[in-house]
Structures are given as C-alpha cells and as structure tokens.
Specification:
By secondary structure, this protein is mainly α. It contains nine helices and no strands.
Length: 225
C-alpha cells in the first residue's frame, strides 16, 4: 500500500499541476490582452482546484500512465472570448502559446530540481526524484501534443493566427471535427491495428521523436544529460 501511494502521488501531483497550470496560463494571458471572461469566472488562478476535472485531470492520466505509459488528460477549459482581445487574431496566438509555454517552463524547473536529488537519498528524496522525472515527461508530452496544428489544440489556434486567410479559414472550420479526428488517430487506429496485426501507433510516430528531442534539450540545458 505504501509503495502504491508513493507511485500514484508521484504521478498524479505532477499531472494535476501540468494540466491545470496549462489552462490557468491561457486565462491569465487572455486577461492581460483584453478579455476578462476567465478572470470574472475566477479561473485566472494557479490554484489547481479551480481547474480540475476529476476524470480528465486525475483518473484518466493516472490509469493511462500505469497501463500504457502514455499520458493524456484535460482540465476544465478556460473560457476565452477571442473577439474581446485587443487584437483578436494576433493575441489569439499568444493566448494559445501560453499553455505549451507554461508546460515547457515547468519541465525545465522540474529538471533543475531533479538535478539536486541523488540515488542514495531517503524516501522523501526518492519520491521527489520520481515526481520530477514524471513532471518532465508529462509537461513535454502536453506541450508537444498541444502544438499539433489542428484546432481546437493550441497549435491549431497558432496556425489560424499566422497563416494567410486562404489557409487559416478552412483550418478554423475544422475545429468542431478536431477532437474526433484526434481520438480516432491516437486511440481508435492503434486499437484497430492490434486487431489486424499492423502497427498503427501514431502516438509513437508523431509524438515520440519531438518529445525525446525536447527532453534531451531540457536535460542538456539544465546539466542533467
């Protein structure tokens, strides 16, 4: 039981912080750029309790980590009225980048803290080392996943904000189909592949190389390579 608590908390706490602070960053940047929708709803806060979705923030990430090694989850989305931003199209890009940017900074901070832990430490230090390693992985996966250029992901909003109208408008119209496309690509296709004996693991193909590259960069940057 003690080992189970040790492992679950070392995974759940970094996951909760990564997912909820990602959302809080969107609300904060939107507020600073003219849209106070999230602020008026009490969502411009780094208190994870205001952003937690019990299923998407706690249960699903933990189950997926221990069963598949892949992490996927969500917090309660922060409401942003893009039309109220000072410069809607330009500022939409900054609001979108705030989430992945926060995940990158959290991964760097976690790597710095991890560098101060040792293999011969006591239980508390071992827990901290494991939690920081998980935090690096979770934050980098969230950053890379959310930068996929497909609305409603952050990368899709960035693409809509920077592409010429001829490309941006058709991409924006894909937003209502974005989540079903992602679920099919990352979950249904691998399940189908296992049934027919073909490797259709798009998670490994699409996310694996950039995730590994970013983690290696962060470890080099913080002197942990």
């Amino acid at each position: 039981m003690e080992q189970w608590i040790f492992s679950v908390t070392a995974v759940a706490l970094p996951a909760i912080l990564a997912i909820t602070l990602h959302e809080a960053a969107h609300g904060y940047v939107a507020w600073r750029l003219g849209d106070d929708t999230a602020y008026r709803m009490g969502r411009v806060t780094f208190n994870p309790l205001r952003h937690i979705d019990p299923l998407g923030t706690v249960l699903l990430p933990a189950v997926m980590y221990f069963t598949t090694g892949f992490l996927f989850g969500w917090a309660k989305p922060v409401p942003v009225n893009f039309s109220r931003l000072d410069h809607p199209r330009r500022d939409m890009v900054w609001v979108a980048l705030a989430g992945p940017g926060t995940n990158f900074l959290l991964a760097v901070l976690s790597a710095v803290v991890w560098g101060f832990t040792g293999e011969d430490g006591g239980p508390a230090e071992q827990w901290l080392a494991m939690a920081m390693q998980v935090s690096i992985l979770i934050n980098v996966i969230l950053m890379v996943f959310n930068l996929i250029p497909l609305p409603p992901l952050d990368g899709g909003r960035v693409a809509v904000g920077v592409l010429p109208d001829a490309l941006a408008f058709p991409l924006a119209r894909l937003e209502r189909f974005g989540l079903p496309i992602l679920l099919a690509a990352f979950f249904l296709l691998p399940m189908l592949g296992r049934q027919i004996g073909v490797n259709l693991n798009l998670v490994g193909w699409v996310l694996g190389p950039p995730v590994d590259a970013v983690i290696n960069f962060i470890l080099m940057l913080t002197g942990n390579d």
